[in-house]
Design brief:
The complex is a heterodimer of chains A (375) and B (191).
Chain A: E1 3-8, H1 9-19, E2 24-27, H2 34-43, H3 45-48, E3 52-55, H4 59-71, E4 76-80, H5 82-97, E5 102-108, H6 124-128, E6 139-141, H7 146-163, E7 166-172, H8 173-177, E8 179-184, H9 193-200, H10 224-244, E9 248-251, E10 258-261, H11 264-279, E11 284-289, E12 291-293, H12 297-303, E13 309-314, H13 320-328, E14 334-338, H14 347-366
Parallel strand pairs in A: 2-3, 2-4, 4-5, 5-7, 6-7, 10-11, 10-13, 13-14
Antiparallel strand pairs in A: 1-8, 6-12, 9-11
Chain B: E1 2-10, H1 15-28, E2 32-37, E3 47-55, E4 67-72, H2 75-81, E5 85-93, E6 108-111, H3 114-120, H4 127-138, H5 144-154, H6 163-176, E7 178-180, H7 183-190
Parallel strand pairs in B: 1-4, 4-5, 5-6
Antiparallel strand pairs in B: 1-3, 2-3, 6-7
Helix pairs in contact in B: 1-5, 3-4, 4-6
Classes of the chains: A alpha/beta (375), B alpha/beta (191).
């Protein structure tokens, strides 16, 4: 039976990891995500499920421990916040190159550098456009509630093992620190060594055990043809992710004349802005990408035939807006609105910006007939 | 029904825990709840605030510009949040240490002498429960039974012997809240 609790997003994520039958967590504390490791330590999961939780000596150590455990076919997770994720990027690129399943959580804070401990969404590029070196992508899930912080953990592992690829949960300080009601799933048993051998024995480094060929985990391919083949294999995975595992949510889009695109915590604020707009008679809808890669390109393109303008809102200076613009192929005006430094916009602020920059100015600049609109 | 509440004061006054107990109480009553703290590098003596929302529906933005109710525990918070209360909304504050009292006339203002009453009860830590009681008297959005259930859930077992003391404090707050007319209101009545 599902259990109802009041938890912080970080705690819910940690608890969900234990319940999802995760084998190991390696991490290093940093605000605003420290409750993840705090909850894991307090819960003593080694007694509950045998899950290993270790505070590594650094973020770099933690991600390389993830590489090791993932190589053995184990379900392994790490988490950090922005500066810590920057430190992990080398390891993340290696995970992608070596085709290893793992879940990396970023509870984003404002940057660059040490920045602030307050919430931000300024790591969109880092998460979606690589971050680390080389031709790779991460499957990126963006939770917008404490419930999703919990639910996305098993979802992320499912994707990670389906594609043998690292998956990122891109949260932020708001979703990490907020407390909400959360329905926790029942405990899933961890896989036994026999089950791991049966399921992942064809690639995982779990001992040769009578097989002819050794399994090798590596991202080093000095033969150009071999590396190109590997890179093309990765591309196929990403194409398949786009076809099969895109996730998004549409709110009040059926009759929308204007559209907000927002993810994670911003989507929550946007939802209230939609409600305020509807009260004023403005037909506003919200497209919320749940996965940031894959991105709901086709859905946006389709909506661009229907709406007069799009506001892309993010807690940064304009990153996702690039993907929104590429998706709609300049059919409608797209504007970015963001705050940074850990400052969070209010729903009223968003509505004001929408009315001025999209409804008023946008219709004048971009009217398809060439005549200024009287809106 | 949606109630959007800001609780603000000094760190160490029990601001965050008051919010947490309110959120737990709402959950016990089957409401949707959210508890969003300001989690800056606050410490005892610094300022702390938390936004608590209770609603029948899914809660959208946990971050707001205007609130239905502000529960204010120090001067800095009063200065900062008095203007963020919706017209017709409620302001509850502890007058201890307040030199510039609220001046709005389009909201309902109440006082509760939480600090003084807590000292009289011989336990200054129940201060926040007295203020919570005052709030529940003015806005009975959760039953006392659910508040007690919420307290039980949010306090570790080792503190459960303090539950009756906390209940007394809530009841004391309920009895002690007084209607406060701002100086502007009094002036306009005199005219």
């Amino acid at each position: 039976m599902a259990e109802l609790r009041l938890m912080k997003g970080n705690e819910a994520l940690a608890e969900a990891a234990i319940r999802a039958g995760v084998d190991a967590y390696f991490g290093y504390p940093i605000t605003p995500q420290s409750e993840v490791i705090e909850h894991l330590m307090a819960e003593r999961p080694e007694e509950r499920t045998g899950m290993i939780v270790l505070q590594a000596e650094s973020e770099v150590a933690a991600i390389n421990m993830v590489y090791g455990a993932a190589s053995a076919g184990k379900r392994v997770m790490t988490s950090s916040s922005s500066p810590g994720i920057s430190l992990k990027l080398e390891g993340i690129s290696y995970l992608a190159g070596a085709e290893l399943p793992a879940v990396i959580v970023n509870v984003v804070r404002g940057g660059p550098g040490l920045g602030t401990i307050q919430p931000a969404q300024s790591d969109y590029y880092q998460a979606v456009k690589g971050g680390g070196h080389g031709d790779y992508k991460l499957y990126v899930l963006a939770p917008a509630s404490v419930q999703e912080m919990a639910d996305f953990v098993p979802d992320a592992f499912e994707i990670a093992f389906k594609y043998r690829a690292p998956v990122m949960i891109l949260s932020d300080g708001m979703i990490g620190q907020i407390m909400e009601k959360v329905e926790l799933k029942d405990q899933v048993e961890r896989l036994t060594d026999e089950e791991i051998t049966e399921k992942y024995g064809h690639w995982a480094t779990i001992g040769k055990k009578g097989r002819k060929e050794r399994n090798i985990i590596t991202s080093l391919y000095l033969n150009p043809e071999e590396l190109e083949e590997r890179v093309n294999k990765l591309v196929k995975k990403y194409e398949k992710m786009e076809e099969e595992d895109l996730r998004y949510e549409m709110i009040e889009c059926e009759d929308a004349e204007y559209l907000i695109v927002a993810y994670g915590s911003s989507a929550r604020i946007a939802q209230k802005a939609v409600q305020l707009a509807r009260e004023k008679g403005i037909k506003l809808g919200l497209l919320r990408p749940i996965t940031l890669f894959p991105f709901p390109k086709k859905q946006l393109l389709k909506l661009s035939d229907q709406v007069k303008g799009i506001l892309s809102m993010e807690l940064n200076t304009g990153q996702m807006v690039d993907d929104v613009r590429l998706s709609v192929e300049h059919k409608v005006p797209v504007e970015h609105y963001g705050r940074s430094g850990g400052i969070i916009y209010t729903p009223e602020e968003i509505l004001e910006v929408l009315e001025k920059r999209i409804i008023k100015d946008g219709s004048i600049r971009h009217n398809k007939t060439g005549e200024p609109s009287l809106l | 029904m949606t109630q959007e509440i800001i609780i603000a004061g000094f760190g160490g006054q029990g601001v965050l825990s008051m919010g947490k107990i309110l959120a737990y109480s709402g959950m016990m009553q089957g409401e949707e709840v959210s508890w969003m703290p300001s989690y800056g590098p606050e410490m005892r003596g610094g300022t702390a605030n938390v936004t608590v929302i209770l609603s029948d529906d899914r809660i959208s933005s946990p971050y707001l510009k205007l609130y239905d109710t502000a529960i204010i525990l120090n001067q800095q918070s009063l200065d900062k949040f008095e203007s963020t209360i919706k017209p017709g909304g409620v302001l509850i504050y502890d007058p201890q240490g307040i030199t510039h009292h609220p001046s709005r006339t389009d909201i309902d203002i109440y006082q509760v002498e939480g600090h003084k009453l807590a000292s009289e009860m011989g336990n200054r830590k129940v201060f926040n429960m007295i203020v919570l009681g005052a709030f529940l008297k003015i806005k009975p959005i959760v039953d006392l039974d659910n508040v007690m259930e919420g307290l039980k859930r949010s306090l570790p077992d080792r503190y459960h012997h303090l539950l009756p003391l906390n209940e007394d404090a809530i009841r004391k707050g309920m009895k002690s809240v007084i209607d406060y007319k701002s100086e502007n209101q009094l002036m306009s009545e005199q005219h």
